[in-house]
């Protein structure tokens, strides 16, 4: 089943790893919270974002840690680790049934992100 490679520049997230990698086991991409729709990429968000600023947030992120990915990355420098992706942005060109993303790769961004709304799926493309 298709699953995109995730590239992410959100270095405020507890799941971020140098090299623009995401070490979460799974990420969930959502529409804009208030409207429930996405007209452009700024409306999308990575709901799996966890701020690395507080101990509570770091502990809260552990349930979603990609343990095997972390071990693999530690022993195989340069290995691209990627989480399972589920996405609820069903008006995206890359969206497919069962909340899957058929893009080869996605780019997540969010400079100085402090909450999930501050993050975006840059690969969003409206149908
Ligand atoms: S913001 Fe999302 S994609 Fe980026 S590191 Fe965090 S969980 Fe992974
Ligand atoms: S590219 Fe589209 S379908 Fe894929 S994760 Fe981003 S918003 Fe969802």
Automatic annotation (TrEMBL):
Domain (DUF1540): residue spans on this chain: 6-49, 85-124
Domain of life: Bacteria
InterPro entries found in the cross-reference section: DUF1540 (IPR011437)
Region (Disordered): 108-127
Protein name: DUF1540 domain-containing protein
Organism: Acetonema longum DSM 6540
């Amino acid at each position: 089943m298709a699953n995109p490679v995730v590239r992410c520049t959100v270095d405020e997230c507890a799941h971020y790893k140098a090299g623009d990698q995401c070490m979460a086991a799974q990420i969930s991409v959502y529409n804009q919270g208030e409207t429930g729709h996405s007209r452009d990429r700024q409306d999308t968000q990575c709901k799996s974002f966890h701020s690395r600023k507080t101990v509570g947030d770091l502990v809260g992120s552990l349930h979603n840690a990609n343990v095997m990915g972390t071990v693999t990355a530690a022993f195989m420098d340069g290995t691209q680790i990627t989480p399972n992706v589920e996405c609820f942005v069903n008006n995206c060109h890359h969206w497919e049934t069962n909340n899957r993303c058929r893009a080869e790769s996605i780019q997540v961004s969010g400079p100085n992100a402090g909450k999930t709304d501050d993050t975006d799926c840059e690969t969003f493309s409206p149908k």
